[in-house]
Design a protein that fits this description.
Blueprint lengths: L10 H31 L5 H9 L13 H9 L12 H12 L9 E5 L23 H5 L17 H5 L5 E4 L2 E4 L9 H5 L5 E5 L4 E3 L7 H7 L9 H5 L5 E4 L2 E4 L9 H5 L5 E3 L1
Antiparallel strand pairs: 1-4, 2-3, 5-8, 6-7
Helix pairs in contact: 2-3, 2-4
Length: 277
């Protein structure tokens, strides 16, 4: 019957036109249906969330504790008022978010990543290799093989998993360990998350003194494996007038909240594990 609609057209051509017309009609009906559905079931735009998103830097680094900027924006749009979570945006972003939300701004304390290790390699390095590593050149893989090839199993492996995680090109390798360009670091914390040794740490920019070591071995074992490691002698703790230094096993730890930056601990450290930053 459909072929009788086009009596003057050859049957071979009709065999093409008829299915095309049917498909076109179905497509038109579906298009109309989509318009109707979108009209009745559309989701209203959250103008507050959109304004918050426009104020955020869009780095999607996860430093705020959410998967990305959209998650943080939704958190604030749902009624939260903590404007201090965006380390990348800093104080300017916190102020703009507070203005949008109509709350008092909470400003993030400026932080920067520090490597708590001085276990350099090479002829004049502080550490030595224990074995030749021939596996996958990643820190995570090397860490899984007896803690890595270095003589200090607490130290930086230097394969650069953190470099790959840093979107701001703030990290590099020199003398076998990671170095941080503090001018480029945004304190997003991605490098901290991927380091299998947990030796990358966020510290306040105001911090002037830290123990650049995470080794908790007894002093004699540390001396044998790293000439720049903390040996747990407690000299720094004993001279600190503010009581800012405590011991975690054989490792000295500086409390940045209590430290007065007097530098007395730096003067007495025999291995220079306690350093001015």
């Amino acid at each position: 019957m459909l072929l009788s609609i086009f009596p003057a057209i050859p049957e071979s051509v009709q065999n093409i036109l008829v299915p095309g017309a049917i498909i076109g009609g179905i497509a038109a009906l579906l298009g109309i249906l989509i318009v109707i559905v979108s009209h009745f079931f559309h989701l209203p735009v959250n103008e507050k969330k959109e304004a918050i998103l426009s104020a955020l830097p869009g780095a999607n680094c996860g430093g705020c504790g959410f998967a990305g900027c959209d998650g943080y924006a939704q958190y604030l749009a749902d009624g939260a008022s903590d404007t201090s979570r965006c380390a990348v945006g800093g104080a300017a972003c916190a102020g703009e978010l507070a203005s949008i939300l109509g709350v008092e701004a909470k400003y993030p304390e400026k932080q920067v990543v520090r490597l708590l290790c001085q276990g350099t390699t090479g002829p004049d390095g502080a550490t030595n290799p224990r074995y030749e590593y021939l596996g996958t050149k990643t820190c995570n893989a090397a860490h899984g093989l007896l803690g890595g090839p270095g003589s200090c199993t607490y130290g930086c492996l230097g394969f650069g998993d953190c470099i790959a995680a840093c979107a701001f090109h703030a990290l590099s390798v020199r003398d076998g360990i990671i170095h941080v360009d503090t001018d480029e670091c945004t304190a997003c914390g991605q490098c901290v998350k991927v380091c299998p040794k947990n030796i990358l740490q966020l510290l306040p920019v105001s911090a002037e003194v830290a123990v650049l070591c995470k080794n908790t071995w007894p002093g004699a074992q540390t001396r044998k494996n790293c000439t720049a490691g903390c040996i747990g002698c407690q000299k720094c703790m004993k001279v600190c007038p503010a009581g800012a230094i405590s011991m975690t096993g054989g490792l000295a730890v500086v409390s940045q909240e209590l430290c007065t930056h007097c530098g007395e601990c730096v003067k007495v450290c025999p291995t220079h594990a306690v350093r001015k930053l």
